[in-house]
Write a structure and sequence with these properties.
alpha+beta, UDP-n-acetylglucosamine1-carboxyvinyl-transferase, Chain, 2 domains, four-stranded mixed sheet, globular, binds uridine-diphosphate-2(N-acetylglucosaminyl) butyric acid
Length: 420
């Protein structure tokens, strides 16, 4: 099994390019199910989750071929089934977004409880409530679900909690439903807006994506056609992770091909901690300040401070002077990595399942650590680069799920990291 071997303590310098957003790419691929003609998705990150989504789609009959350096062509004209491969769906939370378009198209979908990061309970009750509102019947058998509907009927549905993938799933289902759908208390993530923009170019009528109320005029089963290529937007979590890395170790790091307007909350927190950041339309420039000051941070749905950046930010706070309260409000299991950090020399005290106190600055020491999920895995890379001595990071499949060849990109900045 591959591992990352990292020798810490080096300053980093240079330029790094941001890839297409994982959480836009997975939904873009899923959206192929809404089409009666092939679609092309461009600027894809070549990450494990994208490969798994491709396998899931191929298994239900979508024909997929390479289209240019970072593109895929997906042809979902003839589907061969409405059941997912369980072994893959259990690895990937995003598998659940296939349920919306498949149900709308095939009148039935059979799927296991989706897997993915172990960062909390991650139920799917909101998806099921949405399907029921569209007139579907649900049968749960063990850890699998069978959802069926003669014809999906548009509905006025309020999300009891803001959910990114539930918003995307129901929005896609509503495109093929009969009549008008209104989704209230919808998630606002830019990935949702980009999905809606693409579908609208192909004949869908979705209004308000990116706001709390999304209105969709259903097509009564008529599939979408054409629409040109889906260009994946830059990954704001990729960019934000590099911004934090730059704040911890950068002599001068330029982050290119990003969208700084998607990172406003993180930029505000970093500037409050004393980090100097310059930005242009598609770049950011960051260096480690002489002195970092602790700041409290609370995760929230977009446009708030992203939960996916919480673990990397906590690493930065171990290097800042003072005491920072980190409050994780989105997932209940997303602070589990702190024990490993304390073993590296951090001084972090849990307050309750959602809050920790980080005391800094502390000197971190290299260690052997295991990546628990994508984002904590990346945070451990940052911790190991900051630490004195050598670290070994195991279970790096988790990191490869979300970050394409991270070691090669970091080596270009001068990091001593190897895949062994
Ligand atoms: N929730 C429910 N019931 C549901 C759905 C969600 O209670 O039916 C709860 C969740 O347990 C959580 C909260 O609602 O406490 C919000 O979760 P949400 O559904 O928004 O998360 P998600 O859609 O499963 C996506 C991203 C995550 C990202 C979150 C929050 C994808 C594939 N995943 O997850 O990304 O952390 O939104 O922004 O889009 C990652 O990329 O590493 C990652 C975990």
């Amino acid at each position: 099994m591959a591992e990352f071997l990292i020798k810490g303590g080096r300053k980093l310098k240079g330029e790094i390019e941001v890839h297409g957003a994982k959480n836009a790419a997975l939904k873009a691929l899923a959206s192929s199910l809404l089409f009666s003609s092939p679609i092309t998705v461009k600027n894809l990150p070549w990450i494990e989750d994208v490969f798994r989504m491709k396998e899931l789609l191929e298994d239900i009959g979508v024909r997929i071929s390479k289209a240019g350096e970072r593109g895929l062509k997906l042809d979902a004209r003839d589907l061969s089934g409405a059941g997912f491969r369980k072994d893959i769906a259990r690895l990937l939370r995003a598998s659940v977004v296939l349920t919306g378009p498949l149900l709308a198209r095939e009148k039935k979908v059979i799927f296991p409880h989706p897997g993915g990061d172990v960062i909390g309970k991650r139920p799917i009750d909101i998806f099921l409530e949405g399907f029921r509102a569209f007139g579907a019947k649900i049968r749960a058998r063990g850890d699998s679900y069978e959802v069926s509907a003669g014809k999906l009927k548009g509905a006025d549905f309020t999300f009891k909690m803001i959910s990114v993938t539930a918003t995307e799933t129901l929005m896609m289902a509503a495109v093929l439903a009969k009549g008008r759908t209104i989704l209230r208390n919808a998630a606002l993530e830019p990935e949702i807006e980009s999905l809606a923009n693409f579908l609208n170019k192909s004949g869908a009528r979705i209004k308000g994506a990116g706001t709390p109320t999304i209105e969709i005029a259903g097509r009564n089963g008529k599939l979408l056609r054409g629409g040109g290529a889906f260009e994946i937007i830059p990954d704001r979590i990729d960019a934000g992770s590099f911004l934090i890395l730059g704040a911890a170790l950068g002599e001068r790091i330029k982050i290119k091909k990003c969208n700084p307007s998607h990172l406003v909350a993180l930029i505000f927190l970093l500037e409050s901690a004393g980090v100097k950041i310059k930005s242009g339309p598609d770049w950011l420039l960051v260096s480690r300040p002489g002195k970092l000051t602790s700041v409290d941070a609370k995760t929230r749905e977009y446009p708030g401070f992203a939960t996916d950046l919480q673990a990397p930010f906590t690493i930065l706070m171990t290097q800042a002077g003072g005491q920072a309260m980190i409050f994780e409000t989105v997932f209940e299991g997303r602070l589990n990595y702190i024990e490993e950090l304390n073993r590296m020399g951090a001084k972090i005290t849990p307050c309750d399942p959602h809050r920790i106190l980080v005391y800094g600055p502390t000197a971190l020491r290299g260690r052997e650590i295991e990546a628990p999920d994508i984002r904590a895995g990346l945070a451990f890379i940052i911790a190991a680069l900051v630490a004195k001595g050598e670290s070994r990071i195991k279970n790096i499949y988790q990191i490869d799920r979300g970050y394409e060849r991270i070691e090669e990109r970091l080596q270009k900045l001068g990091a001593d990291i190897e895949r062994v």
